């Protein structure tokens, strides 16, 4: 893994957010955290721009779908790949595909699928491809 890869973890579940952040930090990632979409947008605007965003869908203040609308309408943020982490599945208010994530991980997320997905998506971002 290249040094200084950055991941933004956006989830209102503090315990889950901290657990994911801890695992990613141990793997050498710089990790930023946000408890909702509004906080995530603020972090993105203050920098650094992450290589990948791990995004929960169901959050207060600004949910994942609302965040994606704001993110994709901002040219400076639109190309940052998003991996949706959700327990919603078929219960999602909108089909997950409607927000065009790069990948979808269903909670509970296993450690290896999480690490493999983050590595793959971050590598593509670093190498010039976002999909």
TrEMBL record:
Keywords: Phosphoprotein. This is Response regulator. It comes from the Bacteria. One of its GO terms (biological process) is phosphorelay signal transduction system. InterPro entries: Bact_response_regulator (IPR050595), CheY-like_superfamily (IPR011006), Sig_transdc_resp-reg_receiver (IPR001789). The modification 4-aspartylphosphate is found at residue 56. Residues 6-122 form the Response regulatory domain. Transmembrane segments: none annotated. PANTHER family: RESPONSE REGULATORY DOMAIN-CONTAINING PROTEIN, STRESS RESPONSE REGULATOR PROTEIN 1.
């Amino acid at each position: 893994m290249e040094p200084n890869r950055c991941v933004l973890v956006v989830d209102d579940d503090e315990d889950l957010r901290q657990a994911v952040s801890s695992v990613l930090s141990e793997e050498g990632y710089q990790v930023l955290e946000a408890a909702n979409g509004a906080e995530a947008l603020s972090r993105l605007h203050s920098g650094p721009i992450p290589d990948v965003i791990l995004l929960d869908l169901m959050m207060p203040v600004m949910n994942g779908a609302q965040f994606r609308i704001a993110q994709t309408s901002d040219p400076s943020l639109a190309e940052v790949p998003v991996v949706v982490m959700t327990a919603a599945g078929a219960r999602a208010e909108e089909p997950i595909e409607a927000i065009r994530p790069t990948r979808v991980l269903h909670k509970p997320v296993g450690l290896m699928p999480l690490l493999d997905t983050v590595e793959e998506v971050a590598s593509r971002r670093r190498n010039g491809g976002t999909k």
